[in-house]
Amino acid sequence: MNVIPTDVNIMLTIALFIVNAVIGGVAYVFFHSIGDRNLIIRHLILAGIAGYVYWNLYSNYNLPNAFVSLIVGWFAPDFIQAIMEKYKPKGNGT
To answer: What is this structure's pTM?
Structure first.
């Protein structure tokens, strides 16, 4: 039995998507060591907007799998390569 009203449940779901997207944005900022405050704020705002857009596509158009696979295909290779480059063993100059 669901005791949370539907409107509140929808708002909580939207908030969850936005928070998750902002957490991803924070991880991106830390991973890429962005120091410019304006770039950080812009990135986090855009991440929140992206979370809302994804919620809208997920809820209204039932598009999560197609959308996520598109995003993963677009960004995952760069993300994986960036991780590999960041943690690649450094040569000792010999």
So the answer is: 0.64
